[in-house]
Amino acid sequence: MGKAKYQQIIDDILLQIQNGSLEAGMKLPTQRELATMYQVNRSTVIQALDILQSYGTIESKPRKGLFIADNKWNTYIKDNIQWQTYMSHSTSKNNQYFIQRINELEFRSDLYRLSTGELSPSLIPNQQFKEILAQSNDIPLTSNYEYPLGSLSLRSAIVEHVKQWGIDCTVDQICITSGALQGLKLIADGLLVPQSHIIIESPSYIHSIRTWHNIHAELKSLPISTIKRNINHIFNHSQRFRHSLFYTIPTCHNPTQHSYSIEERKKIVHQCQLHGIPIVEDDVYGELYFNRPRPRPLKSLDHNDNILYLGSLSKSVSPGLRIGWIIGKSTVVSHLADLKMQNDYGASSISQYIATQWLTNPQYHQWHIQKLKHELLIKRDQFLQSLTSYFSNLGTWHIPEGSFYIWFELYHPIDMKALFDLAISHHILINPGEIYSEQANRAIRFSYSYIDVSDIDNALKQLSQLIIQLQ
Ligand SMILES: Cc1ncc(COP(=O)(O)O)c(C=O)c1O
């Protein structure tokens, strides 16, 4: 198989840097010119440039264009080992440019984080974690390697924890992971072959991570509205969906916040059953559904081990614990646990210990979730009020029923890259929608979980002015 066209462009630009035809600080031709030069579509050029930007090889200067990055990497590339060539041929690709920038910028303390999908430090129960560790005189704390499936006491705690939502499982059907993201990675590595077909909701969290791109899975995007409209025959074009797996976030979806109704859930499970399509259910936000009871997980409707269920403490308790879990058929889960041993020999045993105490002691988890939802609702209401004040003429949004995202869609397109950079220069961090779908270039994913409630109004007011300036 020949090299993909975007890869040929990357290789050519790297070669030109290595042989000195392109030097640090030089301006690259425009996307249109590059498309003509390489005789490809503009989207292929954009793909190549995005990857080169993610390597740090080229950099964008607002309103000036793209330049060969003026960093030591490129200055010394002629004399040193050409690591960029190694990196560009790796099967694992770097994060998209926006995501790399956001990951770095999230550590700047002078930014209003209107986007971060993480609880603020004041919402994380660090004090209780300290208490749990202090009490470990009474309850033995060990920090040896754990079972391949993870700590038995934590798995027992999870069996009880998920029972409240109707999921009936045993300890041998659970594998503890270092966060739900590792669960996804294990499924990608352990169950899929290159060119596997993954049906995803569009937009989707999965689009923003490289996991399934890296195994060269073919992503088939279905807009949530299309799934709902065709709920009785979602997968009827059976040829198109053969050998597929359906990845879904049915409750408090990231980024749109959508949750399926119980009837839709039953139909999705039935449709997948009918067409032999396994489901990966990502339920990391389900516990943050504001009203009680929360919508039932698909897994609670599954009687044929058709669903691999992903849970996590990251969004509702603490992302730094890195505790998640996969629930599924025991043979599949054991296989994934074996791969996990090859990867990291298990999630941190100290985190597993904290998580066990956290889940088994009623004074911790239940109380915390109630308080957390209360705090999130205060932030949500402030966010909605400020959106109504400043964004009503600019676009649309829905009221979140849980968790902490708001999917905002502009009425008129603007240059999102320019807005992202302009917002940073005004100390505001946003997540452009195109991270979650190529088509979502008018959208912004807001989050009210990290920003201080007292900063929301000011940050949104400023952002609305920047949008108006770019229109
Ligand atoms: C839908 C979804 N799944 C999984 C994850 C990753 O969670 P974890 O921190 O447990 O790996 C995220 C994080 O943003 C997410 O939004």
Automatic annotation (TrEMBL):
**Which branch of life, at top level?**
Bacteria
Pfam families, alphabetically?
Aminotran_1_2 (PF00155), GntR (PF00392)
Domain HTH gntR-type, residue spans = 3-71
Q: Which InterPro entries match?
A: Aminotransferase_I/II_large, HTH_trans_reg/aminotransferase, PyrdxlP-dep_Trfase, PyrdxlP-dep_Trfase_major, PyrdxlP-dep_Trfase_small, Tscrpt_reg_HTH_GntR, WH-like_DNA-bd_sf, WH_DNA-bd_sf
Its required cofactor(s), as named, are: pyridoxal 5'-phosphate
The record's keywords, sorted A to Z, are: Aminotransferase, DNA-binding, Pyridoxal phosphate, Transcription, Transcription regulation, Transferase
Q: Which SMART domains match?
A: HTH_GNTR (SM00345)
Which family does the record assign? In the C-terminal section; belongs to the class-I pyridoxal-phosphate-dependent aminotransferase family.
Protein name as it appears in the record? GntR family transcriptional regulator
| Protein species of origin | Staphylococcus gallinarum
